Amino acid sequence: QKEVEQDPGPLSVPEGAIVSLNCTYSNSAFQYFMWYRQYSRKGPELLMYTYSSGNKEDGRFTAQVDKSSKYISLFIRDSQPSDSATYLCAIGRATGANNLFFGTGTRLTVIP
Amino acid sequence: DSGVTQTPKHLITATGQRVTLRCSPRSGDLSVYWYQQSLDQGLQFLIQYYNGEERAKGNILERFSAQQFPDLHSELNLSSLELGDSALYFCASSVSGGESDTQYFGPGTRLTVL
User: By the CB < 8 Å criterion, does A68 face chain B?
Assistant: First the structure.
């Protein structure tokens, strides 16, 4: 079983739509959760970072963590064509080596 | 621009060959990470260095090795290349390599093994 599972999509939405991206994970020892955005032919860039259950908001982006269900989500409000990218979820352990387990990414296209 | 540089951008080589990928971290960052990204496996952590010393190892094959030099740049060496090694290789850097450090990724090196 993979550490992190992510629906690969692709996901295509009209501009202005609310987007929901999701990941599930298997190990309850994981304590911190991240979302990365990766534009085509670029490296991933950190979008959101949280290590607690609940919601964290940053502009049009909201990261949600449900540790009891081992489920994390990223919501994008008022989606824009510039949001078109691949979104990777990543999780890590609270202790030990600093490495991350990444989902395979969901490719999002926002249509003008 | 993350401040992390990687060379070369593209590399095409044949099976059985050996290549070296180079990474320069952001100014002031002491820790370097290497990742492999392929379509079927996604992004996978290979290895981490901190100030010249290996700190953590992930799914790195024995045919692969890395090092971080005194000037903090890092090189990833891939030998006895196989078709399945074709992938994007990313380097990331962070300030101290701590658990809560943000990692900044470079643009990647695209390796094609023919």
Answer: no
Q: Is A94 on the interface with B (CB under 8 A)?
A: yes
Total residue count of chain A as it appears in this document = 112
pLDDT tens per residue across span A54-108: 889 999 999 999 989 999 999 999 999 999 999 999 888 754 445 678 899 999 9
Inspect the interface and report whether the beta carbons of A98 and B48 lie closer than 8 Å: yes
Rounded (5°) CA angle B111-B54-B106: 40
- The C-alpha of A33 sits at a distance from chain B's nearest C-alpha, in angstroms, of 10
**Which candidate, B107, B104, B38, B92, places its Cα nearest to that of A43?**
B107
